[in-house]
Amino acid sequence: MSPSRLALAALALAVGAACAEDRPAPTAPDALLSVGSTTPGVRVHQLRTEEDPSVTGGAAFCAGAPFTANVVLNASAWSTQARAVDGAVVNEDVQRVGTALACAQITSFAFPPGRQENFYARFDLPEGSVTALGTCTIISNDVPTAGLVLAGCNLRVTDAPAGVAGGAATSLSVFNPFRVPGFETGSYWTLQLYEDGAGS
Question: Residue 108: pLDDT above 90?
Answer without folding.
Answer: yes
